[in-house]
Amino acid sequence: MTPEILPDLLRPGLRLLLCGSAPGRVSALRGAPYSGPGNKFWDILHRSGLTPRRFAPEDYAQLDALGIGLTNLCTTASGADAEIPAAAFDAAALAAKLRRHRPALVGFVGKNAAARFLGVKAPPFGPVPGPPDLPPLFVLPSTSGLACRSWDPAPWHALAERLRQGHAPWHEPPRMGLGPL
Could you tell me the sign of the dihedral formed by the alpha carbons of 70, 126, 15, 41, in that order? Predict the structure, then answer.
């Protein structure tokens, strides 16, 4: 079994699991997710209200206390999506993680991760249908510096608002009072 490049930040009961395509090269070298120059991940987490402050990539484990987890569709290779073999993107492994840990909502960080997981060509940003035994799915713009031409923070703010409104339970009627972000 090939070792994971970055460990998952994953446990039962998360209110949000953010799933990227694969760790970038800089993230793999630093051992911290979303570390690449120009990556907007940590900034948009804070600006959207998902975190109370801007975290540094090395502080990623502190997201757990906020009910936010991290994983990738490909955990065994790093680099730009186009450099990673298609077989390394493991949708079945991600689905198993989602069934086992049951996060309230899954946000795909980039259309590529969502497309590969769902087996569709170009999912829209925002909520998307998925298998009925999985949590609600939400597609977000990639935060990678390589994707800067298509950057739009609006879906990130919509995701944060969805969590504030309590519309992210595990296929149950909306709950209110998820607590402070």
Answer: positive
Exposure class string for 12-38: b at 16+ Cβ within 10 A, else e = eebbbbbbbbbbbebbbebebbbbbee
Angle made by CA atoms 56, 60, 62, in degrees to the nearest 5: 105
Secondary structure element (H or E) that encloses residue 19, with its range: strand 16-20
pLDDT tens digits, the chain, 181 residues: what are they? 567 899 999 999 999 999 999 999 999 999 999 999 899 999 999 999 999 999 999 999 999 999 999 999 999 999 988 899 999 999 999 999 999 999 999 999 999 999 999 999 989 999 999 999 999 999 999 998 777 777 899 999 999 999 988 754 433 333 333 333 3
- Residue 138 bridge partners (DSSP): 107, 127
Question: SS3 of 128, please?
Answer: strand
pTM reported for the whole predicted model: 0.89
What's the DSSP call for residue 42? H
Tokens of 83: 């450099």
**Token reading at 99:** 């069934």
